[in-house]
Each structure stands twice: as structure tokens, then as C-alpha cells.
Write a structure and sequence with these properties.
The complex is a heterodimer.
Chain A: H1 2-7, H2 10-32, H3 39-64, H4 72-89, H5 95-119, H6 124-143, H7 155-159, E1 164-168, E2 171-174, H8 175-193, H9 195-205, H10 207-212, H11 217-243, H12 254-264, H13 276-295, H14 303-340
Antiparallel strand pairs in A: 1-2
Helix pairs in contact in A: 2-13, 3-8, 3-9, 3-11, 3-12, 3-13, 4-5, 4-6, 4-11, 5-6, 5-11, 8-9, 9-11, 12-13, 12-14
Chain B: H1 2-10, H2 13-31, H3 38-46, H4 49-63, H5 71-87, H6 92-116, H7 121-140, H8 150-155, H9 166-184, H10 186-196, H11 198-203, H12 208-234, H13 245-255, H14 267-286, H15 291-321, H16 326-337
Helix pairs in contact in B: 2-14, 4-9, 4-10, 4-12, 4-13, 4-14, 5-6, 5-7, 5-12, 6-7, 6-12, 9-10, 13-14, 13-15
Classes of the chains: A mainly alpha, B mainly alpha.
């Protein structure tokens, strides 16, 4: 038992059990659906997950600081719409310019959120619920009901989702999916190795203590919101490339899926814990569920109910099981330390 | 200095709301001659009657330092359950009863996880928001069900009793009951104390879990009632009924001076903020602004209702302490703020 404790932390146990659930679910669907283990299934799941994955990276950082961003769906919608509109008006825009436009606009919207939360002292749930309505309302008024259409988009953008990065056997890794995974990887490293990443955890687990230590809590939270906005902008760009036709209610309700992925992936809503790897597993699990339920011809109307149930089960198991596991680990660590100190 | 203190006593949130209300009404009168008619005034309540009924119970929950995001989905679910049962030839009275019972059970389900399992209400009700909406989708899929009996549809129409609709009467009765319960009973005091400090409340012998459980169960029941009223008013039910109503409901409560951290706020303030939001939306409709712009303005109001008190407090601190660093002084200031109000008016550095 003590061996296990040395090599596994509670969070890793959670991630391993999530991995186990994913394997079980894949085996289950494999038995139910003909021809399930095919490159096509991987293709469907990976392209469904990539947008959520990119946005969820930002949401993870915000939630680690004990905040929440409900406005990400509106940011994805606004950036996808504005970038799509601009590129159809100005056909000579280079890919880099479109990408920077989406990310920059997202960062500005995230900056507004961050200023309200960090410097206006408005609880994140209130301010982002407000900006969710504001961003979407302004977009509807700005677009005046007109859609961005696929035929107005340049060819490079329409072909982008089919661009291949490399192939493993018959499985093609698409460029955009590769980008999403790279973003997860980069920010995983940021969270683990950079001082900024460690500060996010410090602020989330105890904001008062972090401030007394002299951490620039406001600035760190502000940057987390700006990054979340910028990543949502990247998500908007991918959304534009994938769907082509963008209406004013594009990506509506996406924030629920993103928060579901993050929470199922083990990021605590009260801040201070969670990893990018866990979030990746959460997003993949939700993606597999969604796509497989569609393939099984189960009524799509069941999707929301199952999603909601999964969020609740994840949070409840965290509270009921994982807290106990963490206690066990902490107590064992104390015992070991006491044993190591020689008695006087 | 005495005069200054009197002036400060008037500077309550409710006074500010009353001033805003007068301004909005004045602007509306100048915009349209139809505004002052009795019909418009009844319409004003009638068109958002479900939201303002929900705002009453939401005020209790937010004062109790919790939040219920699932009310709008539960409204949809209960209306869908009613319509689904009705389409299956269940007598409408039984269907109404079933929808109300289901609402209470769903509320108790939220309450169980929040009060007894100790999960944060934000996630629990976020999960049940998705789940209840999913339940509504399972029941109705993409159909819409209508053609309810005439007496049921009449519940949602004006001129039910005199010029008033059934919903307005329900709201009036619930408002009086809530006012009495929140401000004049022991239960109401418990709600405030738990919202201020749930640990202290527990040590004082207040049944924290039971109180939270009651609040969420009643919230479910009221949401279900609101869903039925909405179904009666619209005459048809779809699975996306009442989607995103929670934004308006929470805005009304927070704009009424209820702190999102719990423990403060009055129902008078919530009543005033309901009038402000209703008149503002009505005025914008008269001025031909679209529903989306109205929603965006409500979002601005929501943010402003929290931001303005924060800025006011900061301004008062700066007035008192000069522009010294806030971080360093925070402990000192908190000690000062807990002192009797007599010292508040005098500058600290004089």
C-alpha cells in the first residue's frame, strides 16, 4: 500500500480511473456498433473534440484560480463570425492575419472579463453571465441576421479541416486536431513548470494566503482571463474553418460542454486543483460519448440528460470518494514524516 | 456633520433604485403616450410574470449564499411533463399536480447534493440545468404540444379577475408571503445568518442543512409553477421553453441589492429592481429595440449592479484614507468598517 502511495498521487488515481472508464466505454460501444474500430470513428471524435479542447484549456486555467468563465461560447461565436465576415470581405487576407484577428479579438473580450473580475471585484459567475449576454446581443445587432456563408470563404480556409498533419497507419491526424493537442501540451507544461502556472494553483487554493505571500493575484487572474479569451478566439477560428456557415447564434451553449469536459476531467470548481491531462481525458470522454450515441441511433434528445448526469457523477464522486483518498494520502505522509524524525 | 449623516442614511441602495425607476418611467412617458395606459401597465407584468415570480425565491437562495441556475430548465421540464401527460390523455388536473410534484422532487434533488453532500450549488445546479433540459428534450423531442383546455389557457390571459391575470395574483400573494417570511419570521433570520456565516450559524444551533433543503425544494416547486403559467400564457409547449431565463431572474435579484456573497438584501429592493427591469424592457420595446439588445442591456445592468457598489465603497475608502495602497491597509480598514457607523463620516487622517 505504501508503495502505491509513493508512486501515485490522488490526482493520478483519478486520471487512471477516467482512462479506465474511457476504455470500458469504447469496448462497450465497440460491441454495440458495427465497424466501430475504424479510422472514421477516430476522425469523427477528433474533429468533434478539437474545438472544445482548445477552449477548455483556457477554461481550466480560469477555474484553477477559483473563477469561472461562462462567456466562452459567446467569444467563440463572436470571433468566428467577425473573422469569417472579414475574410469574406477581404479575400486577400493571409491565413496568419485571420488567425491573429480571431485570437486578438478573443483576447480583448477576455480582457474585459478579466478587468471586471480582477479589478472590478465582481464575482466571475456574475460578470461572465453578464458578458455572455452582452457579447451575444452585440453580435446579433452587428450581424443584423446575415450569415457568413461557405461560398464566400477563401479555398484555403474551407480546405483547412481536411489538411493532414501526418498519418499513423490508416488513421490521419488532421492539422487542426494536431494544433489542439499541441495547445494542450504547451499549457500543460506552463502549468507544471512555469512560475505563472504554479501561481494559478496558489491563488486558487487560498487567495488570501497568496496575496499575503506577495503574489500579484489580480494580475495573474487577469492574464488567465485574457488567455482564456485568446484561446476561445483560436476556438472560434477552428469553428469557422470546420463549419464554414456561421450564424449569429453560432456555438450557443458551448460553454456548458466546455465546463462539462473540464469538471469531468477533475478540475475543481472551488479552485486549486486539476491538470491539463485530466481535462484532455474529460473532453475525450465526452466526445466519445456524444459521437457514439449519435452512431448508435440513440435519440439525440438523450444527449443533454446523459451529459448532465456525467457532470453530477464526476463532481459527486470527487466530493465523496476523492476527498477521502486525499485524506488517506495526507495522513500517510504525516505518519511517514513522524517515523523519520528520531525520537528525543 | 449631523446633516451629513442624515444624508448618508438616505443613500441606501433602495433609494438609488427608486430614483432610477422614476427616471426610466419619465423617459418612457416622454417616448410614448400609450405607456401610461392601464393595459400597458398590466402587460408589463404579464409578459414577464414567470420571471418575477422566480425572482422572489431566487432572492432567498442568493441571500442564503447559494445560487440556483437550474430554474429555467426546470420551468421547461415541468411544462413539458404537463404537456406530455396531457397528450397521453391524462386529465389536466392530474397532469398539473404531477408537474408540481416533479418540480418539488427536482428541487429536493438539487437540495440534497448541496445541503447534505456539501457540493457547491454552482456546479450542482449547472449539471441539473443541462439534465433537466435534457429531460424536457426526451419528453417532447422536437414536437410542440398545444390545444390545452380553455380554462387552462385562461390562467395565462389577462382579465382573469378584473383586469388582472392569474399569474399577477399569484405574484402578489407570493410577494406578500415572501416579505413576511423573510423579514418577520425566525426562518427569514436564519436565511440571513446562514448567508453571512454558515459555520457560525451551525454553532448557533440553526439547522443549516434543513434550511437549504427547504429553500431548494420550494425553488423547484415555484419554478414548476412558473413553467405551467408560461405554458398557459403561450398556449403551446416546446422543449426549449424558458431557455436562458435564469439570466433575467438573477439580474433582477442582484440589481435589487442582494449580494452574490449572501447575507444582505431586502425584498423591497428586489421588488423595486423588478419594476426597473420591467419598465426598462417595456420602454426599449416602445423605442423599437430588439430583444437581443434588451438582453445585452440587462447584462450591462447585472454587471453595473455589482460594480457600482464596489466603486462607491472604494471611493469612500479613498476619501477616508487618501490614496494609500489598498492591499497594505485592508486589515486596518476591515477593522474600521466593523466599528459603529458614527466614525464612518470622519476622515481618518484629520
Amino acid at each position: 500500500m505504501s508503495r502505491i502511495r509513493q508512486f501515485l498521487r490522488p490526482d493520478q488515481i483519478r486520471e487512471l480511473s477516467l482512462l479506465l472508464i474511457i476504455v470500458l466505454i469504447v469496448l462497450f460501444f465497440g460491441g454495440q456498433i458495427d465497424n466501430y474500430y475504424s479510422p472514421r470513428t477516430f476522425q469523427r471524435i477528433s474533429s468533434a473534440v478539437m474545438i472544445i479542447l482548445v477552449v477548455a484549456v483556457g477554461e481550466t486555467m480560469v477555474m484553477i484560480t477559483r473563477n469561472i468563465d461562462l462567456s466562452v461560447s459567446a467569444i467563440v461565436g463572436v470571433t468566428a463570425y467577425v473573422a469569417g465576415e472579414q475574410v469574406s470581405l477581404h479575400k486577400d487576407m493571409t491565413p496568419l492575419m485571420v488567425l491573429l484577428l480571431a485570437i486578438g479579438l478573443g483576447a480583448v473580450l477576455g480582457l474585459i472579463n478579466g478587468l471586471l473580475v480582477a479589478y472590478g471585484n465582481i464575482p466571475a459567475i456574475v460578470s461572465t453571465l453578464g458578458t455572455l449576454a452582452i457579447y451575444r446581443g452585440v453580435l446579433v445587432e452587428y450581424g443584423r441576421g446575415a450569415n457568413v456563408l461557405v461560398r464566400d470563404l477563401p479555398d484555403w480556409l474551407v480546405d483547412l479541416p481536411r489538411a493532414n498533419l501526418f498519418s499513423i497507419g490508416e488513421i490521419d491526424i488532421r492539422l487542426l486536431f494536431g494544433v489542439a493537442v499541441a495547445v494542450v501540451l504547451v499549457f500543460h507544461l506552463v502549468l507544471v513548470f512555469l512560475p505563472y502556472g504554479r501561481r494559478l494553483y496558489a491563488i486558487g487554493s487560498n487567495p488570501d494566503a497568496a496575496r499575503m505571500l506577495g503574489l500579484p493575484a489580480r494580475r495573474v487572474v487577469l492574464i488567465a482571463f485574457v488567455l482564456c479569451g485568446a484561446l476561445s478566439g483560436l476556438g472560434g477560428f477552428i469553428y469557422l474553418a470546420r463549419f464554414g456557415t456561421i450564424s449569429f447564434n453560432a456555438a450557443q451553449g458551448l460553454h456548458m460542454q466546455v465546463i462539462a469536459a473540464v469538471v469531468v476531467g477533475g478540475v475543481s470548481v472551488v479552485g486549486g486543483s486539476g491538470t491539463m491531462f485530466g481535462m484532455l481525458l474529460g473532453a475525450v470522454l465526452m466526445g466519445i460519448l456524444e459521437q457514439s450515441l449519435i452512431r448508435m441511433q440513440i435519440n439525440e434528445f438523450w444527449k443533454d440528460a446523459i451529459f448532465g448526469l456525467f457532470i453530477l457523477v464526476a463532481v459527486a464522486s470527487d466530493a465523496l470518494v476523492m476527498n477521502r483518498v486525499r485524506d488517506m494520502w495526507a495522513r500517510a505522509a504525516i505518519r511517514m514524516r513522524e517515523a523519520a524524525v528520531p525520537k528525543e | 456633520m449631523i446633516g451629513k449623516r442624515d444624508w448618508r442614511g438616505l443613500l441606501r441602495w433602495e433609494t438609488l433604485l427608486a430614483v432610477i425607476l422614476v427616471l426610466v418611467i419619465a423617459a418612457n412617458i416622454s417616448m410614448s403616450e400609450h405607456y401610461l395606459g392601464v393595459n400597458n401597465f398590466i402587460n408589463l407584468f404579464q409578459l414577464s410574470i414567470e420571471k418575477i415570480i422566480l425572482a422572489l425565491i431566487m432572492a432567498f437562495i442568493i441571500i442564503n449564499a447559494e445560487i440556483d441556475l437550474s430554474v429555467a430548465s426546470l420551468m421547461g421540464l415541468s411544462a413539458c411533463l404537463f404537456a406530455w401527460l396531457y397528450a397521453k390523455d391524462v386529465p389536466p388536473e392530474v397532469a398539473i399536480l404531477a408537474a408540481l410534484v416533479m418540480g418539488a422532487i427536482c428541487g429536493a434533488f438539487n437540495g440534497f447534493w448541496i445541503a447534505y453532500a456539501g457540493l457547491p450549488s454552482l456546479v450542482v445546479t449547472l449539471a441539473s440545468l443541462v439534465m433537466f433540459r435534457g429531460g424536457a428534450r426526451i419528453l417532447l423531442e422536437d414536437r410542440s404540444i398545444g390545444l390545452f383546455p380553455q380554462w387552462f389557457n385562461n390562467l395565462g390571459q389577462p382579465n382573469f379577475v378584473g383586469p388582472f391575470s392569474f399569474g399577477i395574483i399569484v405574484f402578489a400573494v407570493l410577494f406578500v408571503i415572501s416579505l413576511i417570511v423573510l423579514h418577520f419570521t425566525a426562518f427569514g433570520r436564519y436565511v440571513y445568518i446562514i448567508g453571512n456565516n454558515r459555520h457560525a450559524a451551525r454553532y448557533a444551533g440553526i439547522k443549516v442543512r434543513q434550511t437549504k433543503m427547504i429553500l431548494f425544494t420550494v425553488s423547484g416547486l415555484v419554478a414548476s409553477l412558473g413553467g405551467l403559467l408560461l405554458a398557459a400564457r403561450l398556449g403551446t409547449v416546446r422543449a426549449n421553453l424558458a431557455e436562458e431565463f435564469e439570466l433575467d431572474v438573477i439580474t433582477m435579484v442582484l440589481l435589487g441589492g442582494v449580494s452574490i456573497f449572501g447575507g444582505t438584501g431586502t425584498l423591497i429592493g428586489v421588488g423595486l429592481s423588478i419594476l426597473v427591469v420591467l419598465n426598462l424592457r417595456n420602454g426599449m420595446s416602445l423605442a423599437n429595440y430588439s430583444g437581443n439588445i434588451q438582453t445585452a442591456v440587462v447584462g450591462v445592468l447585472l454587471i453595473a449592479s455589482v460594480l457600482l457598489p464596489n466603486l462607491l465603497r472604494d471611493a469612500r475608502r479613498w476619501q477616508r484614507l487618501g490614496f494609500r495602497s489598498r492591499e497594505v491597509l485592508s486589515a486596518e480598514e476591515e477593522a474600521q468598517e466593523t466599528q459603529p457607523t458614527d466614525t464612518v463620516g470622519t476622515p481618518a487622517n484629520s
